Amino acid sequence: MAITRQTIVNNLKTLLQTITIANGYYTALGSNVYLFRTIPMQADELPAVVIFDKGENIDTEGVTGSVNVWNRVLNVTLQIVCAGSTVDTTVRKLITDVYKAIGTDTTLTSTCIDVITTGNQIEIEQESKLIAGASLDIIIFYRTNKYTES
């Protein structure tokens, strides 16, 4: 039996892999989508996005609902990294592409109730070359039976 949380994260990865210029996006971010990958990356791996599903909150249905169902709130951070001479413009395009992709399927192929984007932060730094990054926070709502993954 598949673990629901893993299926959701895999579906998010698959969705982000659709970000290509041929699919109408600004960038080809979909070529470099990773789960829990270390950063920094090599220049030929950029731009890239790394998915971190770091935390989850669980609540029961409550007094009026079934006590055998858990409502789950999965907190996910998407780390975007890019390089080049126009990283400020590029990182904004990457953020726009991620939001657009999520908006095309907010149930991640019917494995969750909803995906909500809650904000982003951009950081630009220059050591030996100009690099930009962005952290996008999203919340994924889904339900399972109590103490199980189905």
CATH architecture identity: 2-Layer Sandwich
Taken together, the total number of domains comes to 1
Low-confidence stretches: none
Could you spell the SSE succession in H and E letters? HEEEHEE
Radius of gyration: 17 Å
Task: Estimate percent helicity.
Answer: 10-25%
CATH superfamily: Phage minor tail protein U
Biggest sheet, spatial arrangement of strands: 1-2-3-5-4
Report the biggest beta sheet as strand number plus sense, adding barrel if it closes. 5 strands, mixed
Task: Provide the CATH top-level class.
Answer: Alpha Beta
Distance between the termini: 8 Å
Could you tell me the CATH topology label. Alpha-Beta Plaits
Class computed from helices, strands and strand pairing: alpha+beta
What's the total number of strands? Answer: 5
Structure, explained:
- The structure is a single chain.
- The chain is α+β, with helices and mostly antiparallel strands and 150 residues long.
- It has a single domain, classed as Alpha-Beta Plaits (2-Layer Sandwich).
- Helices cover 21% and strands 40% of the residues.
- The chain has a five-stranded mixed beta sheet, covered by helices on one side.
- A hairpin with an 8-residue loop joins strand 2 and strand 3.
- The model has no long low-confidence stretch (mean pLDDT 91).
